Every structure is written in C-alpha cells, then in structure tokens.
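Input sequence (174 aa), recorded before submission:
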Amino acid sequence: RPKQYNAFSKELRIELNQRLEEAEKNSNIRAVIIRGDGPGFCAGADLTETPGSSIPDQLELEYKPIFQQIVEGKKLYIAAVHGSAAGIGAALALACDFLVMSDKSRLSLIFSNIGLIPDGGANWSLCKKVGYNKALEIIVKGKHINSEECEKYGLANKIFPEDKFQEESVAWAL
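Predicted structure, token format:
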C-alpha cells in the first residue's frame, strides 16, 4: 500500500501474518526482510479504516500474532526501514532481530504527542535495546529518531545510502 505509506489495514495485517507463517514453515528460509513498498516503511495503523472489531480484539487477534511470530520465531527478522516508520510501524521495526535503515529514514515514536503510549510492544523493545531511562526519554518527548541517532542508540545495525538502500540491505542480509 505505497500510496498510504503502508499503513496497517486489516487486509495488510492478515496478509503479513500469513506470510510470516509461511516463512516460519519453510526450511529453506533462514532470514526474512520486512520492508515497505514506495516512499516509506510504515505509517502505522490505518486511521481511516473503520475497525470491524473492537480495538482490544484487533490488537489481540490481528497485531499480536504478527509480533509473536517475529519475537518468538525461528527465523532471523530484519526490518529494512526507508522513509518513516511511525507508530505501530516503528514498533514492528523494533521487534525485529536486526534493523537496517537508509540514511534518510527515521523512527517516529510520537504517541505522547497525542496522549497515548506506544503500542505493539515498543515500550518493551525500547527498554530492552536502550535501557529504561533512554526509552522513557524517547517516549515522553515523542521523538522522531533519525538513522544516525538510531545507530548511536544501538537501535540500528547498519545505515545505507538512500539511493542504494534496497540492494545494500539485501546484500547485508546475505
């Protein structure tokens, strides 16, 4: 869904979950690269979509299986972030085993700007990766974290030039 910056719709949640299940079952796959199509990684939840179920049900039945497969799966998961990864899209990137970014990309954890706390396990992921104090600072400030800061904080494993991002991130994964 490149025109919507790959915002999570119900259809996208279901399809991503199915693809992750297929990858986990395929013994020929050792690593999975998760990336967005178009100008950005993921804009977060699709706020234009009318939920077909309650938000708690949506989180439990549609989002949680995706994150569980990534965190508990046997494959290595690599988030290849170009453009912006915002909201639950940032949480998805942080849940992966590895995070590679383009030099023009950023993680946007701006939940506090709208009176919310991060979802998708982003609190846990951030605390695990940068420690409680830095995680709390990022969350409370509602920060956009560019790729250089992500690398400095230990969130990003590698940064590639925007114009070579696709080929460099795949080569790095191999």
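Checked by second reader. Residues 9 and 107 are 20 Å apart (CA to CA).
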